[in-house]
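User: Structure please.
Assistant: Input sequence and predicted structure:
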Amino acid sequence: MHTVAILVLDNVVPFDMAAPFQMFSWTRLPDGRRPYRVRLCAESPEVPTEGFALRIDRGLDGLEDADTIIVPGCDDTGPPSPRVVAALREAARAGTRIASVCVGAFVLAEAGLLDGLRATTHWMATDDLARRFPDVRVEPDVLYVDNGGILTSAGAAAGLDMCLHMIRRDLGSAVAAHTARMSVVPLEREGGQAQFIVHEHPPVPRGSALEPLLEWIEDNLAGEITLGAMAGRSGMSERTFSRRFREQTGTTPLQWLLRARVRRAQYLLENSDHPIERIARQAGFGSPTAFRERFRRVVGTTPHAYRAAFQGKKAPSVTVG
């Protein structure tokens, strides 16, 4: 039997911990046997979470004979204790498979287990992970990353995808499909699928001379908006306008405009049944082809797949090649 140890740290996010516990606990072989033994391990017998405390049966010694260790996310992404770091490093040296859910990736990074590897975490924390651990190749737009012995996943839901991926790797697609049905989650989301990031506009200082211009852009996204038109409304040359725009927003006018159009398209895909051709016009992309190409470049998936994910519709199959 394969032992899965969930390493519970202080202020653990309950769902980040419960999801993999449920996923592996519900897995069954065709003859009904349980292939996984799941245990909770921690430094102390009681671990606080938001609203309640968890009673833990095993200490860090429970990691020593585990085949897989999963580190859930915590509300505090500060450094783990030296004992936790040492236990994870020893497990990695022994060849134990180690995975993280959400910001649990910071714990793996603190232990040095992600140095030189690709990794992901929740999209709100990817910049912080990359800043604090420059030796980690952070992938902000994927659901999970499998490096073989070390895996990382994005948010809690992506942790379910990662667990199903591990189950499929261990026991095959039929067992993983049954586990997915028991957990009422899809089997087929792949690790490279985008996290559906909400691309916020860079902040603009309150009272900035750009505020009226940006409001005008939002009100006129369906029309043609050029750099010259934006500069003219601001009473500047294109060169001066571009420089001041970047100084105040951290991005270029055309990049800001693209994000605004993508956000409009995301809203329409989520909240309307308008055909793709109409949304392309409403968001100012001109042609459906340009819309699909730019939407995929920014969001990481197609408009059809995005709508399917947020409206519960089946995405059309796509043949590549």
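The two ends are 42 Å apart (CA to CA).
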